[in-house]
Amino acid sequence: MRLVILGGGGFRVPLVHKALVGDGRVDELVLHDVDGHRLAAIRAVLRGGPRVTATTDLEEALRGADFVFSAIRVGGLAGRAVDEEVAHAHGVLGQETVGAGGIAYGLRTVPVARRIARRVAEIAPQAWVINFTNPAGLVTEAMAEHLGERVIGICDSPVGLCRRVAHALGASGAEFDYAGLNHLGWLQAVRVDGVDLLPRLLADPEKLGFEEGRLFGAEWLRALGMIPNEYLHYYYATREAMGGDRGAFLLRQQEAFYNGSVDWETTRLEREATYMAHDREGERDSLEGGGYEHVALALMHAIADDERATLILNVRNGATLPHLDGDAVVEVPCGVDARGPRPLPVSPLPDHAAGLVTSVKAVDRLVLEGSRTAALKAFALHPLVDSVSVARSLLEAYLSRHPELAYLS
Which of 71, 166, 282, 400 would suit a FRET pair with 113, their CA atoms being 20 to 30 Å apart? Predict the structure, then answer.
């Protein structure tokens, strides 16, 4: 099996490689990146596992691919730092996938993701594309225009939430009723033998000591009657989450690795320890066994080996969430086999959640439209941007700082 990673010079690629060591299904791992220096730095970290090749030639990388992991970052971490800086200067949230920062990142990324999807369709039409690139739901929807159901978006936040909830309940073999968009979803039920155990969890503050319980607080979780994805913190506690310069921090940190000053493992541990640290109480819970690389491999194995699995994925909606159209990419549990993923039935979202999902999806669609007017509307209509004049100023500032947005001028 030939597996290609686009964005193969990215810092988290060794996590994927580590998961492949001893797996046996992948014969060749191809790393592709537009930055040869970053590609060489990552290639030097990898030990053992399948045969690894590295190339800056996209056609060479894609030829004969069975699976393609798309993990690109248009504009690099320097672009993310600008996204945050501009948003904060305008008094709005700068997080890379939420609000103004997410819109700016999406506007940079969508044209590139579309070009890649077209090339995959031309060169490797048999390949399945597993998209890691953020904003994952938006980018997956853009790529689906050319790849249809052969592109699937993944995220490790839902699987981490479900794993922590199952551990708190002491439950095995649970079915998780989760629905929404990427970074905008809610766990509405946890069923074992048809019985929903979530009310029992919400009624016991001691059992809510895991990450999301600390992040949102037992009182708010009981009021909601469900457990939000961690990224809902940016909507439920916008003022408290306004600070932070994660992009600038990661840029400084990873520059030290890529220039050879610090080793990869030391850099990784610091990165994980500081993730959302300004919003949390206590240390981040371990994601061992549940990171995005494990989700990707579980998905790849289910398709390649025709072994049915249930995974929370970003896929076309169909009729799953009735307030969205069929082509909208949503994040829901899916049954997966050799035919790919199929969304499973989920409970209807309550009005407040459905309204937020509908609003954010409308913003996604404006980003996909790809015009200057649509970009202005995307900023202005996002729930976390509170003024048309601020939206106009945000757009002008991002246009002046990001050369990748020249197509909007």
Answer: 400
Tokens of 231: 């990224």
Closest by CA position to 130, among listed 321, 293, 333, 10: 293
Q: 370: phi > 0 → left, psi -120 to 50 → alpha, else beta; which?
A: left
Of 185 and 246, the structure prediction assigns the larger pLDDT to: 185
Cα–Cα dist 139/77, whole Å: 18
Please give the C-alpha separations between residue 404 and each of 52, 79, 107, 396, in angstroms, as whole numbers.
Answer: 31, 10, 9, 13
Please name which of 50, 21, 14 lies closest in space to residue 263, comparing C-alpha atoms: 14
3-state secondary structure of 116: helix
Estimate to the nearest angstrom the gap between the alpha carbon of 237 and the chain centroid.
Answer: 21
Q: How far apart are CA 336 and CA 303, in angstroms?
A: 7
> CA-CA distance, 340 to 353, in Å (whole number)?
28
Q: What is the pLDDT of residues 256-275, one digit of tens each?
A: 999 998 999 998 998 888 76
Q: Select from 179, 187, 189, 125 the least CA-distant residue to 315.
A: 179
Give residue 154's pLDDT.
98
Give the pairing type, strands 128-131 and 67-70: parallel
Query: For 47-54, which contacts have Cβ atoms below 8 Å and span 24 or more sequence positions?
Result: 48/21, 49/17, 49/18, 49/20, 49/21, 49/22, 49/23, 50/3, 50/20, 50/26, 51/27, 52/17, 52/28, 53/28, 53/29, 54/8, 54/30
Nearest alpha-carbon partner for 1 in 47, 72, 70, 69: 69
